[in-house]
Amino acid sequence: xxxxxxxxxxxxxxxxxxxxxxxxxxxxxxxxxxxxxxxxxxxxxxxxxxxxxxxxxxxxxxxxxxxxxxxxxxxxxxxxxxxxxxxxxxxxxxxxxxxxxxxxxxxxxxxxxxxxxxxxxxxxxxxxxxxxxxxxxxxxxxxxxxxxxxxxxxxxxxxxxxxxxxxxxxxxxxxxxxxxxxxxxxxxxxxxxxxxxxxxxxxxxxxxxxxxxxxxxxxxxxxxxxxxxxxxxxxxxxxxxxxxxxxxxxxxxxxxxxxxxxxxxxxxxxxxxxxxxxxxxxxxxxxxxxxxxxxxxxxxxxxxxxxxxxxxxxxxxxxxxxxxxxxxxxxxxxxxxxxxxxxxxxxxxxxxxxxxxxxxxxxxxxxxxxxxxxxxxxxxxxxxxxxxxxxxxxxxxxxxxxxxxxxxxxxxxxxxxxxxxxxxxxxxxxxxxxxxxxxxxxxxxxxxxxxxxxxxxxxxxxxxxxxxxxx
Length: 471
Prior knowledge:
The chain is α/β, with parallel strands linked by helices. Helices cover 40% and strands 13% of the residues.
């Protein structure tokens, strides 16, 4: 039982009614105002402080996060207590009210619909004449050249904002082509690093410092999500928008998406964020920052339940960077030109050049071999149990040389190291190089062998021959 004055009871009724009707975009200010009034009356004894739970329940019912409720209520309440308000002298009759009666009925709330930025506003940020004043664009062109930079800028709709001189506009466009929001950031034109001093230069275009759109409901999607539509490449996930743009240049075999922060994959109650919905059924590789490796490995386990395959890059574990103790894959990219990086870490460029030098008949034969492998019913049966096999076939242009009902001898299996030695110019390859090229971990190659999905692998020139064991 909670004891109120008649005046306090009526006042609390008004606060709860006001809070219960607050709309998205007004909830925080409404709770702060009600908490201030509550604090005033609590200081004078008109309302017991224990009744604060009733007001906070009303805030929860309109969809405010619990952490925001506690912070906002505490701020308004403490300020109100310093400015007490007394009830009229003739209205101090006490009434005893059941707490259960006072708690508002919890009604199911409709899920707030996301707001969108109109197309014309996005187009306004993309005018090429603005690029000369865009710090990020200037840095990117200097790093990778005009052609590669222009392609990445166009793919990710990188624009310019007037929020700060030289600021960059990075829209989040979903798979349906709608702009969920535009993140605005300021980069150093010399280093490409985000400017964080004297304050963190990051904002949103719908906010009060830019478009000032009242009641805007920001429901974020992954940066670059629009690139997934009608595309069959595997997806690479990283934290920052800058890293995703660099990844599209340095590792173009992937569609690069950014999730914004270390827990950009996380959702309510330890689940996955709604950003992950578009990854369902896709092959995904995570590129966590160095300090986020273990955390993202845990997220990978959740992703594996909805994705065709999930792997986590270990590139950052032993990588040391002079200007940060928490590097990401973008720091590795920027140590090289795209050509230098691809010579050192990727090998498909070499294979492409080799294919260009082949006669047309040989190239046609390679294409036929690839199709015959994919269409082979034995391969299809095995790939249905382990999709990684198809990636292995694609990377090494494998062909089926025969199928056998007998169990192959253990000595016929090859380890990842033995595979590396059979690659062209194997002295420049390591086991990690092989795994990176295939896009899987060493343990997954071992898993292929243990499940008898890989019989043998042998490279001769530009051909790779594989034998498979049927189920």
